[in-house]
Design brief:
The structure is a single chain. The protein is α/β, with parallel strands linked by helices and 434 residues long. 29% of the residues lie in helices and 21% in strands. It has a 6-stranded mixed beta sheet with strand order 3-2-1-4-19-18, sandwiched between helices. Strands 6-14-7-8-10-9 form a 6-stranded parallel beta sheet. The two termini are 37 Å apart. The structure holds NADP nicotinamide-adenine-dinucleotide phosphate.
Length: 434
């Protein structure tokens, strides 16, 4: 008899774990559970819609999903439909791969004003995540402010700067593409609290700011390091390449294209100023770095009038049932992926929100190593027990086969050369199954 494992979450952390488990244990049974009817987590709902090549990894995950050892159970929400304690009673091991879906807060006055969004909700909105269908940000404004200098901040700024034609060719939610198409946005400010050398974004993403149909990217040459400063050229985080692109943008003129993206450094948000419940400006404070590289406010402040602010300052995991949670690091309390005997964690729920998709791969291998040391318990009912429990609770489980039919319907609905027209609500997805 093989081991039975339930994985909660079908994003990269979940699917890399499933792949490692079936590779290491050819007789184990793995159920991958997701609260959405659609698999692959951030591959579908996080990766930018104009970065289709990054989504190709879903084809690799599909090989795992189609293994006779693996099942996908979509539209099953933990703990609404089944609790962690129940899963632990049914399976030999439970793996949490629930990511880091909650936005971190800036912690400044005015954060709850209308027009102020966190990156998870804003990215979820344009990526057709059913939770954010109703966000409806008002893009009828001239100026947007994006806070943060990570790749998510660049995704948001780039997509806001694109033309209707550019975004319609992607799998962006149709309502978001419509909103961007008619938006009069012509100034998008991206604020980093540290300097260009400390930026978290990577060079491939900065490069795209020189390739936009309608937008020109501007950088103040005064913030760039001199030619005498030694720059490292390490992989994705290459300072040399980042600074090379920023130096090019510093030569641009603001009147070259209708939309301007201002990549600004050494400024942090201190207050959002509102009128009638909506943001009308953001107050920023100039910063400098102290001798140990820490952000230090200078006391010099300025205001940027704007009607939309997207804080792309990172995300955190959501606590689940009574699982031990590390409040300081905003993820599940774990020792190299082990929460306790039989309960493991992988991906951003383990490490926090960092790295590329492939960074989650070793987490899956670690989960498999832990599970290899477990002995199957003859009294655990495994997949059959979960099926019974979900049937008793009238849960409409979406299988991988069902997902393939949802996917086919989305692909059939595509227009403008887009790869798919995404359904944007769960009833629409389930409804497409007839
Ligand atoms: P991130 O890379 O950690 O960047 C967060 C940014 O927010 C940093 O610039 C950080 O500044 C800033 N920040 C944090 N707290 C702040 C505050 N209170 N006020 C002002 N600024 C603040 O996070 P992310 O952009 O959400 O990305 C998450 C992960 O996904 C990253 O590993 C990223 O590379 C990856 N990702 C990759 C791609 C891609 O490969 N194309 C696309 C999207 C995301 P400090 O550095 O000063 O702390």
């Amino acid at each position: 008899m093989g081991l039975s494992v339930a994985i909660v979450g079908s994003g990269p952390g979940g699917f890399y774990s499933a792949a490692a488990l079936i590779k290491e244990m050819p007789d184990c049974k793995v159920d991958v559970i997701d609260r959405l009817p659609t698999p692959f987590g951030l591959i579908r709902a996080g990766v930018a819609p104009d970065h289709q090549s990054s989504k190709k990894i879903a084809k690799i995950f599909e090989r795992t999903a189609l293994s006779p050892q693996v099942r996908f159970l979509g539209n099953v929400e933990v703990p609404r439909d089944v609790s962690i304690a129940e899963l632990r009673g049914l399976y030999d091991a439970v793996v949490l791969a629930t990511g880091a879906p909650r936005d971190r807060r800036m912690g400044i006055p005015g954060e709850d004003l209308g027009g102020v969004y966190g990156s998870s909700e804003f990215v979820g909105w344009y990526n057709a995540h059913p939770d954010f269908r109703e966000l409806s940000p008002d893009l009828h404004t001239g100026t947007a402010v994006v806070i943060g200098a990570g790749n998510v901040a660049l995704d948001v700024a780039r997509l806001l700067a694109k033309t209707g034609e550019e975004v319609r060719a992607t799998d962006m939610a149709h309502y978001a593409a419509d909103a961007i198409d008619v938006s009069p946005l012509n100034d998008i400010y991206v604020y980093a609290r540290r300097g260009p050398l400390q930026a978290a974004f990577t060079h491939k993403e900065v490069k795209e700011f020189g390739e936009l149909d309608n937008a020109v990217t501007l950088v103040d040459p005064a913030v760039l390091p001199g030619e005498d400063v030694e720059l490292h050229d390490k992989g994705r985080g290459s300072q040399e390449k980042n600074i090379g692109y920023l130096r090019e943008y510093a030569k641009n003129k603001g009147d070259e294209k209708p939309v301007r993206i201002h990549l600004e450094f050494y400024a942090m948000p201190i207050e959002l100023i509102g009128e009638d419940g909506r943001v009308k400006a953001i107050r920023m404070e100039r910063t400098r770095l102290d001798d140990s590289g820490r952000v230090t406010p200078t006391g010099e402040t300025f205001e940027v009038p704007c009607n939309i602010v997207v804080a792309c300052i990172g995300t955190q995991s959501t606590p689940l049932d009574n699982v031990a949670y590390d409040e300081k690091n905003q993820r599940f309390l774990n020792s190299d992926g082990e929460i306790e005997h039989g309960l493991y964690v992988a991906g951003w729920a383990k490490r926090g929100p960092s790295g590329t998709i492939a960074t989650n791969f070793p987490d899956g291998e670690r989960v498999a190593q832990y599970c290899k040391e477990l002995t199957p318990d003859a009294f655990k009912q495994g997949p059959a027990g979960l099926d019974q429990l979900l049937a008793d609770r009238d849960v409409r489980v979406v299988t991988y086969e069902d997902w393939k039919r949802i996917e086919a319907a989305e692909e059939a609905g595509a227009t403008h050369g887009a790869p798919r027209r995404k359904f944007t609500t769960i009833p629409e997805m389930i409804g497409s199954l007839g």
